[in-house]
Every structure is written in structure tokens, then in C-alpha cells.
Amino acid sequence: MSFESLGLHADILRAISEKGYTTPTPIQLQAIPTILAGKDVMGAAQTGTGKTAGFTLPLLNRLMETRNSHGGKRQIRALVLTPTRELAAQVGESIALYGKHLPLRSTVIFGGVKINPQIQKLRQGVDILIATPGRLLDHVGQKTIDLTQIDILVLDEADRMLDMGFIHDIRQVLAIVPKEKQTLLFSATFSADIKTLANGLLKSPMLVEVARQNTTAENISQVVHPVDKKRKRELLSFLIGSNNWRQVLVFTRTKHCANKLTEQLNKDGITAAAIHGNKSQGARTKALANFKSNTIQVLVATDIAARGIDIDQLPHVVNFELPNVPEDYVHRIGRTGRAGSEGEAMSLVCVDELKLLKGIERLIKIDIPSMIIDGYTPDPTIKAEPIKNGRGGPRPQRKNNGQRTGGQKQNGHKPQGQPVANGKRKNQSSTNARTAKPKQRQSNNVNRPDNFGNC
Ligand code: AMP
Known about the structure:
Blueprint: H1 10-19, H2 26-36, E1 41-44, H3 51-65, E2 78-81, H4 85-98, E3 106-109, H5 116-124, E4 128-131, H6 133-141, E5 152-155, H7 158-163, H8 167-176, E6 182-187, H9 192-201, E7 206-209, E8 220-226, H10 232-243, E9 248-251, H11 255-267, E10 272-275, H12 281-292, E11 298-301, H13 303-306, E12 316-319, H14 326-333, E13 343-349, H15 354-364, E14 397-398, E15 404-405, E16 420-421, E17 424-425
């Protein structure tokens, strides 16, 4: 099946072909005709499936069809809400790319940057607005935006918006936009909260689904490297150096750990930058651009900051720390092996995290193969300690001033045995997960005292 057969506008087809896409992905095959027909959609799509084009292509098409229905005046007719700035920017880029031959204007608005240039853009008139909920409501409050002409509303990564405490903001936006509109809701997971939101919002939606919920893509090879907490950074530097990895996305649980690890990697001669909520928007954009252009080797990210990062064919994702929320594992490793390319996801797991690992394996219904790297065998006398500073506490709430407060709680875990692979206990190195064993490398940091705390 080709893009041509889906009935898209010739100028959209031209942009698709210039981008080099020849065949629609499964989600696109399902979503495009449904959205073109004006139906509401409930999309269960993981990242990496091509879902962004799945909704942006027909959205552009619909706006072209109804271009003259608002008296020819340029008004915001499509609103895309995303949880993070990065995702907003990325959806904005996709819309600009696929709509580059169309006479439609789009703009992206998110917090952390000056509001005045955004007001200017809005005044000039836009057809499509991509926004994060907080800044959108700031504009509503300042009356610098008109949402009364919305024909199409998209909630992208709705599960994450709820996780981030945006439900109240979303409800406020829903109260402003017209009742009569087409609504598209995409979510990687379908919790009870998402279903409640969808029930009140979508009219006889078509369910568009590609991968089963909480499964991990098959073209991603996954492996666990058991290692002592204090030796994780050393092992990471070793893996990157000995395998000569050029582009590695590394996840930590906390901003503090992301900063600390970045500093340590740079000291090890590995170029790295951190991306998390405490970084200015400028710093985040710069770090991402440098990573995409291969100016830096490693991007160290927290879960929320990394949400929506799309880098073509990202080859390696490392979980420096396992996430507290098992679903985040699926999101994290979804950054690699995108749209058919091969990817490798590895997790450095210390004894404290064995319970988290179990939770992840239960969720994805896979026993992740385990492989001890020579020279990094965990010390069996080390007892598990509770994990501090993780997500999983009370959800962040927006305060009146627009900032969010977060609750972080201690998350204790009982000690458990060695990691399990394929149903068996594994105490020694195994080669079933990776064929190439990293070459031994002179490490200049073996004796560096650990100053990571929990990191
Ligand atoms: P998404 O799931 O929307 O984040 O998209 C994942 C990646 O797939 C992005 O890098 C897209 O540029 C790419 N992509 C989307 N549609 C196609 C397609 N039909 N053929 C090849 N790549 C695609």
C-alpha cells in the first residue's frame, strides 16, 4: 500500500516523497483514512511507530479541505497538546516538514522561553498550534490566543500528560475549545484515568492500534549487565570506549545523577551533555542539537526530558538506572530501533534494582537476557539498599504561578537474588545476549573514589 492510495493532497505527497518515505507504517495505514473521514481516534501507539506522521498528514489534509470555511481568515483550527517541550518542538517540525508546500502556518508554544515572540507569532495568524498545556493556559489567561475555532484537537502522549499532573490543565483547555470538533487521542498505555478522559472526550472513536500495550519492539535487542552500583559509571565508560559507540542515550532517574554522570563522563574523555527539567530551554535545545549532529557522544537524560526525543536510527540506549515506573522502560528503549532500524538497549543493574527489573520483565513479558561483563562481576556480599530519589511519589501539581511542585518518595526494595535470564538464575557471564564482547581496555578510573551517592 502506498501513500498515494491513501488519498492525501498532492503537495503533502510531494513532501513525503522528498523526506524519502515510500511505504506507510501500520499505524499510518490505519490512522490516515480514519482521520481523513473525520472520525475521532483513540490511538494506542508506541513511539517509533510513525504515529506523528499518522496524525499530522491527515490533519494537514483536513485543514486544506476546510480552508475557506472560516471566512478566509487565518485562525487556529488545529491544536496539538503534548506533555513536553521537546515533543512539542518535534511535532512542530513534522508539521512544518509535511506541510512545507501548503499555504498553512503553524507555530509551537511552550514554557521556559519568552512569551512575547510567541504572542507576535500568534498575532500574525496561525492555522495549527502545537503547545504544552501550561504555556497554552498562560496565553489563554493573557487573552493572546483564540481557541474558539478549533476543528481538530490532538492529545499526544496523553498518558504522559496525566503522569505529569496535567489533567487539570487539560480539562481547562477542553472547556474552552468548541464541543463540535474532531478529537484524536494518542497514548502508549491505557490506564483507567486515560479511559475516563477518553470516554468524556471522544465520540464513537475508532481504535487504532499497532503494537500490544507495553510490549517492546522486536528489532530492539535488550540486555541486562549486572554490576555494583559504585562501578556503574566505570562500566558505562568502558562499554562506550571499548565498543566505540558514537551516539548513546543514557537514562538516569534523577536530575542530580544526570548532572553528576555527565561531569564524570566528560572527565573520562567522553563528550556528554545532560538534558533535564532544571536545564534552560536553550541548554536543552543545544544539547539535543549537538547530540543529533554527533558533536557529542552521549546525551544523559531523565525520563520526562527525554520524552519525545526522536533521533533517526539511534543505535544505543543505556539505562544507567532502571526507572521506578516499569512503563518508563518501554518508553526509554523505544528511543532506539525506530521505524525498522536495529537498536540495542542495555541496562546496568545493581542489587538494589532487582525488584524493579522483575517489575519490568513482568510488564513486557520477557526475561531480559543477563550478561556480566568481564571484570565487573557484582560483589555478592553487597546487600540491597532502598532506592532514594526516584520518581513514583505524589504527582507533580501546577501551582498558581505555573510552576510544578514534585513529590519524591523513598522507594524501598527487599534484597533479591541474582538477575534471572530465560527463567534460570544466572551467576556467571553469559554470551547469549551479545555476540561481541567488549575488548578489555586500560581504564584510567578504576580506583576513583565513588562520589555518586545513589547515582
Ligand atoms: P514517531 O513514532 O512518530 O516518533 O516516528 C518514528 C520515526 O519514524 C521518525 O523518525 C519518523 O521520521 C519515521 N517515519 C515515520 N513514518 C515513516 C515511514 N512511512 N517510513 C519511514 N520512516 C518513517
